[in-house]
Design a protein that fits this description.
It catalyses: a ribonucleoside 5'-diphosphate + ATP = a ribonucleoside 5'-triphosphate + ADP; a 2'-deoxyribonucleoside 5'-diphosphate + ATP = a 2'-deoxyribonucleoside 5'-triphosphate + ADP. With 139 residues, this protein is α+β, with helices and mostly antiparallel strands. The chain contains seven helices and four strands, in the order βααβααβααβα. Helices cover 40% and strands 17% of the residues. The structure holds inosine-5'-diphosphate.
Length: 139
């Protein structure tokens, strides 16, 4: 299992609010290389599959409605220690608890509309990357 890749999505709130460029700048400044990227939209069924692990949680319907409500940017990012370093860069799930300088502190609207996704393990980074990209789309 490689540890130098993570998977991210710029979520519909941040896209609609015009933050794609600023968020990508922060990602680049933090030393991540973009290995794959697409501007896309996921269906409700794809969102349900992607967030399957949360299916028993009370926010599952709202989360999957939201994630399928508008365009997103999906990307695979490369850097040593990618998963942990990217989680640090995005900050806590709840932007009210996110540290200064993190992406969620700066761009998230709320706990549910929190601007970005970042994989939580090397295994999930691999699964989530494969959810959006085929081998020939990763450079
Ligand atoms: P993470 O994105 O920081 O890893 P997770 O616990 O994996 O957080 O939750 C996935 C996503 O579900 C969060 O990013 C957020 O959009 C949403 N979410 C998590 N907990 C809540 C909640 O208590 N209320 C509403 N939405 C939530």
């Amino acid at each position: 299992m490689r540890s130098d890749r993570t998977f991210t999505m710029i979520k519909p709130d941040a896209v609609a609010n015009g933050h794609i460029g600023a968020i990508l700048a922060k990602i680049n400044e933090a030393g991540f290389r973009i290995a794959a990227m697409k501007y896309t939209k996921i269906s409700k069924d794809q969102a349900k599959k992607f967030y399957e692990v949360h299916q028993e949680r009370p926010f599952y319907e709202d989360l999957t409605d939201f994630m399928s409500s508008g365009a997103i940017v999906a990307a695979i990012l490369e850097k040593e220690n990618a998963v942990a370093d990217f989680r640090k860069l995005i900050g806590a799930t709840n932007p009210a608890e996110a540290e200064e300088g993190t992406i969620r502190k700066e761009f998230a609207e709320s706990m549910s509309r929190n601007a970005v996704h970042g994989s939580d393990s090397d295994e999930n980074a691999c699964i989530e990357g494969a959810f959006h990209f085929s081998g020939t789309e990763i450079f």
